[in-house]
Amino acid sequence: MKAKEQTLSIFALGGVNEIGKNMYVLQYENDLLIIDCGGKFPDESLLGIDLIIPDISYLEQNKDKIRGLIVTHGHEDHIGGIPYFLKKLNVPIYATRFTLGLIEIKLDEHKLLRETECIQIDAESKLKFEKISVSFFKTNHSIPDCLGIVFHTPEGNVVHTGDFKFDLTPVNNQYSDIHKMAEIGRNGVLALLSESTNAERPGSTPSERIVGEHIEEAFKKAEQKVIVSTFASNVNRVQQVVDASIKTNRKLALLGRSMVNVVSVAIERGYLNVPEGMLVDARDVNELSPEKVTILCTGSQGEPLAALSRLSTASYRDVAILPDDLIILAAGPIPGNERNVTRIIDNLFTLGAKVIYGSGSSSGMHVSGHAYQEELKLMLTLMRPKYFIPIHGEFRMLHHHKVLAESVGVESGHTFIVKNGDVVDIQNGEALQTRKVAAGDIYVDGVGVGDIGDVVLRDRKQLSEDGMLVIVITLSKAERKIVSGPDTISRGFVYNRESEDLIKTVNRLVTNTVTELQEENIHRWNVIKQAIKKSVGQYLFTKTKRKPMILPIIIEI
Amino acid sequence: MKAKEQTLSIFALGGVNEIGKNMYVLQYENDLLIIDCGGKFPDESLLGIDLIIPDISYLEQNKDKIRGLIVTHGHEDHIGGIPYFLKKLNVPIYATRFTLGLIEIKLDEHKLLRETECIQIDAESKLKFEKISVSFFKTNHSIPDCLGIVFHTPEGNVVHTGDFKFDLTPVNNQYSDIHKMAEIGRNGVLALLSESTNAERPGSTPSERIVGEHIEEAFKKAEQKVIVSTFASNVNRVQQVVDASIKTNRKLALLGRSMVNVVSVAIERGYLNVPEGMLVDARDVNELSPEKVTILCTGSQGEPLAALSRLSTASYRDVAILPDDLIILAAGPIPGNERNVTRIIDNLFTLGAKVIYGSGSSSGMHVSGHAYQEELKLMLTLMRPKYFIPIHGEFRMLHHHKVLAESVGVESGHTFIVKNGDVVDIQNGEALQTRKVAAGDIYVDGVGVGDIGDVVLRDRKQLSEDGMLVIVITLSKAERKIVSGPDTISRGFVYNRESEDLIKTVNRLVTNTVTELQEENIHRWNVIKQAIKKSVGQYLFTKTKRKPMILPIIIEI
């Protein structure tokens, strides 16, 4: 019954040529399935922006065909965009029990919980749509309950790995279902979409269990409080902190909203095993003997308002770091966060604490959740795909992943390194990438979604670097002359004794400029404003080498 | 003749609890000697600031005692502050031939060359002041012609290491004079100031020669152009690029102002050996066969305006990157620069180039110029100081260096981890740290030095995150009512259809606020402005979750 003229289309709306805002689409006839809906944290050039989410205008235009949003796991770069997405498109969400728990926290915050259809799935689930059916396989990653996805389409099977590593000695039995993967590969894979985060790194990522061993060792040596900062969603690592605390007779306090939220979900839903009576309130920590206390806190990325940062500056109300307390940073800094993290480490040392830290896995307290080269090759070997689309990575990572794929037998020319919006069309078993759909970054700033554009960002950049001058001048319409002003107000520009003289000269310049124009009988505001901007701008640049924004305001009376 | 009541004072005006703006002072009676005068690059929180330099108000107050500025080597964090320093204090500068070459480039740019007394020294020089005499010893570091310093004072000898590593197979014969160091140690060292950059790293830093071997290997395999980006001042690495180019029959072009400047100084002064006729102009590169070309360029830290960045976006006029060109990043990214660097790597891969890169020394194309733990211990062992002051590092590095010092025999209590401005006073062989002198950060922005303070930076931050609204309203003095406006101008705030409604509501709010106050007979501008700020601020925060700067301007006619 396969309609030969039909095409299977695969594309990313986010997640390629970047780390973050993952969103992939698979479409065949009337079945449009979405995989993940992530957010991305802005770099420092995007002044004032809180979050970046994918442009979903293609989905809005094709909303009748959308069958659902399938979520591979609960990390921010896979679920962070969901609330904004749902405000535009009310679509059923398919995810595992733990992933749904994390999504529901978000939906609750955005008051979207009641109107959203959340459907719980697991690795044994099968979904059936018009022409596509979907099955799943278990993977291991730095968060529980992750899935890889198989789409059974009339053109053939397409596999999306989600984020994964192969951890053969996993914690909490979160194993990779290699046998099922092998079977999927044996049955034939038309196209594989596999994550590329660590495609630059040779070898294999160490097992999470290694971290547990190092944690236990450190706990046994610790003489005072132990404070561990890690990603709240890394429940297996949290479990190992719990286990080490049990072995060393420590109670456990949680600091930071996301730590409290995620740990609650994990305990409730059975992903984390914390004995009755072990959890204590942060306010009660001071009543316990220090060697009986473990604290788990947020802020491992150096976030200035998170618990660890506040502890390091002795500004957390209920808990103080004391000499010989042990702080373990059980997370690697994400590129861009290093300076914030080292500032915290310095502050902790200043307080007399012992600190275990290190880049990547060098401290033994962190391992990556993303497959290294040998693991990526294993996935490619298991799946034996005809076509390969490396996803989830910046360009160089996708490039390296392509080289790996070819090294294990993917035919040259069968790997598609795509941009967001590039569509790979497969028809009669032949894949081509020729067309595009709309894709891009949407900025979230406060409650505004998509209302910040390049103009606003350019203004913010100028304002941030050199500040601004507002120059107010009142003109008489009747007499064609200045009746008051110019008055110049500066913000973010200069502030000292010398600046008074500077401002006086600016005012004199403005008076001259305006008077000259009036003598020439030029009264158009725009012309006057441009002339003010030009003369003041040139003067200030010569004197200060700065280019503040100049905003002339003319009042005519 | 030693006056027992006299004190030897040692302190930092920059360089401790930070990486950058190194400046140390040694004072005994009427002899005040300054070591280095560095700049520091601002992090992203210091919006619009170009450079940070040390506060030298203590030196200005004691200028009669200053005998000179001794510069250990020519890196920016040791010489970057010199032009600003000289504009306040005209002091003789003592430095080696190569270091002086780099300083003179700066002095020339700032038109200070003629009035400055530059005195060339070498490792055999001896300086004699009233009570202090000074001698030197050769060290190895990632720039030629580095010195460590010995101050012979009536209290005893004080050693300042400068920046160093122990490279036992150095390039260009830039050896560490271990025998002289041993002799200095045998003669007794009262206090050692030693750099701490890599005090966290176990082992020893590899030899620069390793980089040369990897460069040569890569050159031999390269089939097209080779582009190497490294620090211009790392002349020994530049030499190895020259040597590899000679062996593979390539001409050499230099891109980037600092590469051209520094290489010229190095050739002129005999630190770099480039055969006659090997250098070609960048404009002539296209006329050569690609396999006959090496390009050395600036921008290894991802600086957006430097040569490498412009090459990566195909926007360098004279030279284009073509498929299979080889780009070697022969420098590790300084923390904070990773994102800019990886963006460039991605762009280079997109152009089809081959790229050799990697964090730290993982690519084989970079080694650190700063001693690791075993080398720091060797320096401490050679010097056997009574007192130890770790310098040149953030707090955790100083802390680790202290631990290392105690592990090789420095007595507990004899290490001083100081802040900038903390004075270590030594009298009758006993050291104490009790007093402070003024120290701090001075911001350079454009041609302004020290005219940017916290208020300006706070304004810039607010402007950068949420932009601003200027609200202009004209009031009649006679009638006590609004005669025109309010008019609201926004910059960096929002820009879309919806914002029009927002601005309309703002104007309505302002009218209401002002009218109400006038009805209550309140006419003081400050009160009216505050009321406008409050009502508009609250409204905008509710609607947008943003806090733009609100600048009400009242014109009274």
TrEMBL record, chains A, B:
One GO MF term attached to the UniProt entry: RNA binding
Keyword Metal-binding: yes
Active site: 195, 370
Gene Ontology CC: cytoplasm
Annotated binding of Ca(2+), by residue: 48, 50, 445
Presence of keyword Electron transport: no
Top-level lineage group: Bacteria
Alphabetic keyword roster: Calcium, Cytoplasm, Endonuclease, Exonuclease, Hydrolase, Metal-binding, Nuclease, RNA-binding, rRNA processing, Zinc
Binding site for substrate: 232-234, 366-370
InterPro entries registered for this protein in UniProt: Metallo-B-lactamas, RibonucZ/Hydroxyglut_hydro, RMMBL, RNase_J, RNase_J_2, RNase_J_b_CASP, RNase_J_bac, RNase_J_C
GO biological process, one term: mRNA processing
Compartments reported by the entry: Cytoplasm
EC numbers on record: 3.1.-.-
Gene3D superfamilies, per the entry: 3.10.20.580, Metallo-hydrolase/oxidoreductase, Ribonuclease Z/Hydroxyacylglutathione hydrolase-like
Domain Metallo-beta-lactamase: residue ranges: 20-214
Entry's family note: Belongs to the metallo-beta-lactamase superfamily. RNA-metabolizing metallo-beta-lactamase-like family. Bacterial RNase J subfamily.
Annotated protein name in UniProt: Ribonuclease J
Native organism: Bacillus taeanensis
Gene for this chain: rnj
